[in-house]
Amino acid sequence: EQHFQVYRNNVFENLTAALKAVYPVIERLVGEGFFRYAAATYISMHPPRSGNLHDFGEEFAGFLADFPPARELAYLPDVARLEWAWHQSFHAADSAPLALTALGAIPPEQYANLKFMLHPSVRLVSSPYPVLRIWQVNQEEYRGNQDVNFAEGGVRLLVIRRRQVEIELLGEGDYALLSSFAAGIPLARAAEAALRAQTNYDLATALHRHVTSLVLAGFSF
Questions:
Q1: Which of 16-51 are b and which e, b meaning 16 or more Cβ less than 10 Å from the residue's Cβ?
Q2: Burial of 132 (0-12, 13-18, 19+ CB in 10 A)
Q3: I want to staple 78 with a disulfide (CB 3.0 to 4.6 A). Which of 124, 127, 138, 197 is the partner?
Q4: Residue 80 pLDDT > 90, yes or no?
């Protein structure tokens, strides 16, 4: 029984360490004691389903949203979603750039049915809170102004790994377009969604930008 207890303690410590590695900003925001308490509750409710610890912690944002002690920190689940997106992007598969010659060979009458595929590392995050600013000021290397102005409102974010993981702000049109592509929606309907979100959206310029910046990695019909 003592040996099993040692094993349980080791498993718990390993899983807690895995959560800390994925969610360092959450730990910094709530403190180590609170984080360990939340982690213990989370581990009991969501034990690992895979032998790969990189897969552990996916439900943590949803857990925090329903965790009574964290209720007053309404922005906390969205910060966790951003950290999970960063983690997923870091460990995602790589992909060759989209072949412009192949895209250029598509007849114009078939453009409407094009389905663009996002780079495997792309993740999209939307929040009514300034979660990017919260994430930035809680990085270990950050030395600037620590203030976060919640009056700035929400953000729409692109997370992508190029040489390293990068987080970029998106406009309403770009977010609608890329979200549509992520859902497998063809170009014509994706463009309609982007124009509904942002009436002055320049689709041609946006597509060129997303291809050259490696956001779009392929296409099909």
A1: bebbbebbbbbbebbeeeebbebbeebbeebeeeee
A2: buried
A3: 127
A4: yes
